[in-house]
Automatic annotation (TrEMBL):
Gene3D superfamilies: 3.30.300.20
SUPFAM superfamilies for this protein: OsmC-like (SSF82784)
Coiled-coil boundaries: none
Protein name: OsmC family protein
PANTHER family assigned: PROTEIN YHFA (PTHR34352)
Species of the source: Agrobacterium albertimagni AOL15
Domain of life the protein comes from: Bacteria
Length: 138
């Protein structure tokens, strides 16, 4: 994964009196947010789950290389779903990550890659320990 010490990270949401936020990354990327249940696009919960999916997929490729399994690793799909908690505060009660491998990897090697990917992934590590959240204004 990218060395975070050399890559600017962060995001800014800009929201007007009407409409949805536009998210800008520290590197200049932009993404429009949607909240309607049938609107195509990402809402804030999707973004959290998408971050985990992207991180786990890249971490799995790194893990396959570390474990000497790149010859049997063709491709990977990582599906991430979340179940919202029924009580307050609003949050995910659980998040499920499913890795589907293409290639000649046996189930044992798939499991080794998946577990090593979880150890490598900054997003999964951050979710697992609940980082300190500082809220400010100004």
């Amino acid at each position: 994964m990218a060395d975070l010490r050399s890559r600017s990270i962060g995001a800014t949401a800009t929201l007007g009196r009407r409409g949805y936020p536009v998210i800008s990354s520290a590197t200049g990327g932009e993404l429009e947010i949607v909240t309607g249940p049938t609107e195509a696009g990402f809402n804030p919960l999707d973004l959290l789950l998408a971050s985990l999916a992207a991180c786990m997929s890249m971490s799995a490729r790194i893990a396959a290389r570390e474990l000497g399994l790149t010859g049997d690793f063709e491709s990977l799909q990582v599906a991430v779903t979340g179940e919202k908690a029924p009580d307050e505060p609003s949050r995910f009660a659980s998040i499920t990550v499913s890795l589907t491998f293409q290639g000649a990897l046996d189930p044992r090697d798939q499991s080794r890659i998946a577990h090593r990917a979880e150890e490598i992934c900054t997003v999964s590590n951050s979710l697992a320990v609940r980082p300190q959240l500082r809220i400010g204004s100004g």
